[in-house]
Amino acid sequence: MEKLRLMLLGIAALALVALGAQVFRARAPAMAATVPAASMASSAAQPQDARAQVIASFQKLASFRPYYDNLATALPDEYARVVNAVAKQEDKSPATSDDANMALAMRYVRENYGALAGHAQGADLDRILKAQQAILNAMGDSDPGLCVSFFYGGGSPGFADFSAKHRDLIAELAQANLAAIIAGKANKTKIADPSDADVQMLDDALVVAKVSPAAIDLLLDNKSPDPPLSDAQMCRAGQDYLSALLGLSSSVRWRLMSRSLILAARS
User: Fold this and answer.
1) CA-angle at 99, arms to 93 and 105, nearest 5°
2) Whole-angstrom Cα distance, residue 181 to residue 124?
C-alpha cells in the first residue's frame, strides 16, 4: 500500500497544476508594482468599476473567454469571487497579466470545488490527462526544466512566458478541469478506490515503455536516483508516465485519476 500512496501523491502533484495550484507562485514577487496612493483610493472608491474592468478583460482573449463564460454559467458564485479577487489584485499590481489571472481563477476554483473533479467519469478524466500531456510535450520541446517543474507541480517564472505563447493549451486544461468539476457535481456514482494491482499495472506499462528503472523508482516510489536524472531525462520520463496512464485500461486509469484529483484538491 505504500507504493500506492506514493504513486497517488505523485499524480496528485501533477493534478495540482491541472487545478491551477502553483504555476505562478514563483513569479508573484516580480508582479509587484508601486501604485500611486490616489489611484488606489480611486479604485477602492469605485469597486464596481474595477469589477467591470476585470469582466471586460476576461472577454478580451478569445482563447480564455469560453472558460470564464462557462465558469460564470456553471458556478456563478465562484465566478464572482474570482472577479473580486482579480480586481483586488490588480489594484495592487497593475502589471498582473491575463495569464496570471487565469492561473488565479483556476486556483480559486480548485480550492473550493476541485475535489468534485475526482468524482467525474470517463471522458472527463481522460480530457484532463490529455490536456496535461499536450502541455508537457510542448514544454519538453522548448524547456525540459520547465517540463519537470510542471510535472511536479512546482512554481516557475518560465511558466508565464509559456502560457502567453500557448494559451490554447492552458485554456484546454482549464476547461477540462471545469468540465470534470461540473460532471463530478452531477455524478452520484462513486468511483472505486485504486488497488496495489492497479499500481503494478502502471509499473508494468512503464517497463514496457522502456522507462529506466531509476526513473520508475522516482516516479512510483519517490526514490531519488544517484546520480540524479537530467531535466531532459526526467521530462521524457514524465511524458512516458502520462502515456502509460493513458494506455491503461479505462477502469484502472479512472480509479487512479479519480483518487489523485481528490488528493490534489485537499493538498
Assistant:
1) 85
2) 9
For residue 10, the model assigns a pLDDT of 53
- What confidence tens digit (pLDDT) does each residue in 100-145 have? 889 889 888 988 898 899 899 889 999 999 999 999 999 998 899 8
Closest CA to 152 of 43, 23, 5, 1: 23
Write the DSSP assignment of 202-261 as a string of letters: HHHHHHHTT--HHHHHHHHH-PPPSSPPPHHHHHHHHHHHHHHHHHS-HHHHHHHHHHHH
Tell me the residue type at 97: S
* pTM for the model: 0.81
DSSP 150: H
d(CA 104, CA 99): 9
As a whole number of angstroms, the distance between CA 15 and CA 218 comes to 17
Which residues of the chain have a pLDDT value below 50?
A: 1-2, 6, 9, 16, 18-46
- Reduced to 3 states (helix: H, G, I; strand: E, B; else coil), residue 90 is helix
| Cα angle 10, 181, 50; round to 5 | 105
Q: How far apart are the first and last CA of the chain?
A: 20
* Structure confidence at residue 42 (pLDDT): 38
Q: Are the beta carbons of 148 and 237 closer than 8 angstroms? A: no
| Burial tier of 70 (Cβ tally within 10 Å: 0-12, 13-18, 19+) | middle
